[in-house]
Design brief:
5-stranded antiparallel sheet; 30% strand; elongated
Length: 284
């Protein structure tokens, strides 16, 4: 299965949808990490979610979902760029009972932040409390509070795969309030019959026919998704420079070198004594 997202539109209504299926990206995201299965599932759902939400980006940039709380998973972060590059990471404590995998158990009391980061211009940020049992419920609350658009999400993750389905009712333009309202209730009821196993394992054409064969949606071209990380030697160098002269001098005197590992892709960059001395000279 190639990682992709499929947008779909219902004729004569102001309702849109999106299907996302990812496999190779999830495998790459989980490589080099020892996440418990419950945390892997949470990461997969977050990746599917940002791929769905990033479809609204009309400019170069990225969308990030970040959830933080007081549970065993202290941080969940997933990002998707406008051209479909995905990455994600989680931080968790050790020695936990990972038999439960819902958001309340894993992240606990906390909040979720959706950040839209354009390459140019100001970023936008929306914050909502983590009040749902699932990540999908938390995101639906975000749309209700921040975007004020009726939105339903279904997310599934397992066996190094993730998938997501989104339905969203847009402001009335094509049809009136009553017609859109009736269509929304009908489509929402149909989508709610989809099982998580079907969402994970069936191809998007089969899913859409299975759900909406009586009201076939229009299908624009699919968009590909892939793993992508923004780390680089230059970014790591700038991060070291930001520590300041004293900290760099301590690293030079005590260790003579430093090695940085990217949290997302696990790529390592080593800076030796010559590199550290050059940084010190640059900012002194």
């Amino acid at each position: 299965m190639q990682d992709h997202k499929q947008r779909f539109l219902f004729p004569d209504s102001d309702i849109r949808g999106e299907l996302v299926q990812v496999e190779s990206s999830i495998t790459r995201i989980l490589e080099g990490h020892s996440y418990p299965l419950a945390v892997q599932g949470l990461i997969g759902e977050a990746v599917a979610a940002v791929a769905l939400l990033a479809s609204t980006l009309k400019f170069k940039g990225r969308l990030a979902l970040q959830a933080q709380g007081h549970g065993p998973v202290s941080l969940l972060l997933a990002e998707c760029t406008n051209d479909g590059e995905l990455r994600a990471v989680a931080r968790h404590s050790d020695g936990q009972d990972w038999s439960e995998g819902d958001v309340r158990t894993l992240i606990g009391d906390g909040h979720m932040v959706i950040t839209i980061i354009p390459e140019q211009g100001q970023q936008y940020q929306g914050i909502v409390p983590l009040e749902g049992d699932t990540l999908a419920q938390c995101l639906e609350a975000y749309f209700q509070q921040s975007e004020q658009l009726p939105t339903r999400l279904w997310l599934a993750s397992g066996n190094n795969r993730a998938a997501g389905l989104l339905l969203q009712r847009l402001p009335n333009q094509i049809a009136g309030t009553d017609a859109n309202g009736q269509m929304w209730e009908h489509l929402e009821a149909l989508a709610s019959t989809l099982t998580m196993e079907e969402l994970l394992n069936l191809d998007d054409q089969t899913i859409l026919h299975r759900l909406f064969h009586d009201t076939p949606p229009q299908l624009p071209e699919t968009n590909s998704l892939k793993f992508g990380c923004t780390c680089s030697r230059e970014r790591n160098r700038n991060a070291l420079i930001s520590l300041g002269i004293e900290e760099l001098q301590t690293l030079l005197d005590e260790d003579g070198e430093v090695e940085l590992t990217c949290d997302f892709c696990r790529h390592q960059e080593k800076f030796d004594a010559v590199d550290l001395a050059e940084m010190i000279r640059e900012i002194s």
